[in-house]
Amino acid sequence: MAQTVGVSSPPTTRIMETAHEPTRTQRFFRGLTPYLLISPFFIGFILFQLFPILFSFFLSTQQWNPYKDGADAFEFVKLDHFNTLFHTARFWNSLRVTGIITLVCVTIGTALAVLLAVLIDAVPDWLSNILRAVFFMPSVTSVVVITFIWKQLLNRRYGLINDLLVSNHIMDAQNFLGDSKLALWSIIVMLIWAGLGWDALIITSSLRNIPEEYYEAARIDGASYIKQFRYITLPLLRPVLLFVVTTGCIFLIGLFAQVQLLTAGNPLHRTETVSLYLYDQAFGYQEFGYASAIAVTLTFIMFAVSFFNFKFLGNRGEV
């Protein structure tokens, strides 16, 4: 009776299969390759973000003399910097100015961005593209350029705004950048104008994702345009409005460059923000420990504001 004999692979085939199997070293480097490709981001993050943040927390409890070497440059002062900070009127003034700018810009700016987004979404596509390009242009323009333009527009002697006010007999020339109240409102108007296009573009993208069937059903039920906006548009825009408000708050709480270039905190610190006060203490008076305490406080304020935004503006699990 014939026996069935198993067919084995030729020796040459087994040799080729063995030759193609990666060695342990090759497997190691293949597994390491993805981490090497993403390592530049983490190296940059650790060196230029994480380390400065941790060093700032450490420095807020130290009296640092940068002109000394080694351990002699640091003196542990516990929470003295924070105690001094919370009893300094200039800090509370800068916090008040920052709060006013943040509250007004976020409130008015977001409302105007929603209205602009609705307008852009309602007009024909060719006009929508033009409006988006025009209003988005300040968002991609240098902060220095924007501030310089507004500084010229608001100039008391030759500014265009004062020229229009005087030539049309509306009022006398105003010292927009020298009067404390006018200077603060000038900063607010500039910030709203500069950020309007960016926020409107984000909201427009979210508007176009709302199904048209919702509006058709509302119109069949006899809902007016205002009711459609209130009960359909706004609730469905809640996640993107949360994003716009939160990022706007974080940006405005840390506001520095625009104020520094436009008024430098003048007159008499009436337009000085917390970041500007921090900069002055660190590089004007060499109080790096005290400035780090300001930075730590500002960081906690940002976290607190973001938390309350998610708490009260969040979509309760639907964001």
What does it look like?
The chain is mainly α. It has helices at 11-20, 24-59, 80-86, 89-122, 125-136, 143-153, 160-167, 180-207, 212-220, 225-236, 238-253, 257-262, 274-284, 288-313; strands at 62-64, 74-76. It has a single domain (89-313), classed as MetI-like fold, CATH 1.10.3720. The protein has 14 helices and two strands, in the order H-H-E-E-H-H-H-H-H-H-H-H-H-H-H-H. Strands 1-2 form a two-stranded antiparallel sheet.
Topology diagram in text:
Elements: H1 11-20, H2 24-59, E1 62-64, E2 74-76, H3 80-86, H4 89-122, H5 125-136, H6 143-153, H7 160-167, H8 180-207, H9 212-220, H10 225-236, H11 238-253, H12 257-262, H13 274-284, H14 288-313
Antiparallel strand pairs: 1-2
Helix pairs in contact: 2-14, 3-14, 4-5, 4-8, 4-11, 4-13, 5-8, 11-14, 13-14
Record keyword descriptors for this entry.
319 residues; mainly alpha; MetI-like fold; two-stranded antiparallel sheet
Level of helix content?
Answer: over 70%
- Name the structural class: mainly alpha
Tell me the count of domains. Answer: 1
| Through-space gap between termini | 75 Å
Ranges where pLDDT stays below 50 over 5 or more residues in a row are none
CATH superfamily: MetI-like
Global geometry:
globular
| Strand and helix order | HHEEHHHHHHHHHHHH
Biggest β-sheet: strands ordered side by side in the sheet: 1-2
Main β-sheet description = 2 strands, antiparallel
Rounded to an integer, what's the Rg over CA atoms? Answer: 29 Å
Question: Which band does the percent of strand residues land in?
Answer: under 5%
Query: What's the β-strand tally?
Result: 2
Task: Please count the helical segments.
Answer: 14
CATH topology call:
MetI-like fold
CATH class: Mainly Alpha
Mean pLDDT: 88
